[in-house]
Write a structure and sequence with these properties.
Number of domains: 3
Structural class: alpha+beta
CATH architecture of the largest domain: 2-Layer Sandwich
CATH class of the largest domain: Alpha Beta
Radius of gyration: 20 Å
Distance between the termini: 27 Å
Number of strands: 16
Largest sheet: 5 strands, antiparallel
Mean pLDDT: 88
Order of helices and strands: EHEEEEEHEHHEHEEHEEEEHEEHH
Number of helices: 9
Shape: globular
Low-confidence stretches: none
Length: 301
Amino acid sequence: MRIAILSRNPNLYSTRRLKEAGEAKGHQVDIIDTLHCYMDITSSRPAVRYQGHELPSYDAIIPRIGASVTFYGTAVARQFEMMGTFNVNESVAISRSRDKLRSLQLLSRKGIGLPRTGFASKPDNIKDLIKNVGGAPVVIKLLEGTQGIGVVLADTAKAAEAIIEAFMGLKANILVQEFIKEAGGADIRCLVIGGRVVAAMKRQGAEGEFRSNLHRGGSAKVVKLSKEERETAVNAAKVMGLNFCGVDLLRSQNGPMVMEVNSSPGLEGIEQATGKDVAGMVFDFIAKKANSFSTKTRGKG
């Protein structure tokens, strides 16, 4: 099969591993810089052009679209969908997962476990906003933040009020969330492919750090999931409409709680922690689904 990886950087671990794994399975794999694609939106014959020529017909694409280029990246992915190309993660699902507020609303509607969350533009009573999520300590998040950037733990109500007021003064969109103390600065990253958890690791924040991101000095090790944790991860991926994603869970006294569903999960940490060929599993999924796929996006807006 001929498969394209939409990625801005061919030297990233995840991009390299995907290309290596695909070629090892006998596929032709091209890496295409998403922002250098441009679209020919012609009646009955949509096309994607790249470096001065029309791209060939691909059997499938693997979108590795960074948060900073979500709008253009999903437009390119959507163009491929219009051309009848199988997309591992459809453009509408990527957009859905990148909107933190929308994703939480969708997960909440389906009864997925979540930390209690508040969102407001100009609350008349900030104290009530904090009280409504269980009171201090609370976690305050920028909607547009990634990799733990723009996430603050406010230990007291006074500190929470000051941080919220400061963010609002900058006209930033924020979420105020219940702090799950019993998680102990750790979370669980579940890798879901094709409706099945294929790998999981526990990420522990560095000493004195409540954020568990590996980019922030956290450590990772393999973890055994409970049946409820596995079902929560699979259901969260299903609600988002993602075939390949990372679901981040917290272990709380009320059961597993979803923190985020990531449509472009990194492979380095989880492959090293678990020893599993996750990249190869992505191509196994493509081989199984690409020839008989149906997409909600193809031919639609």
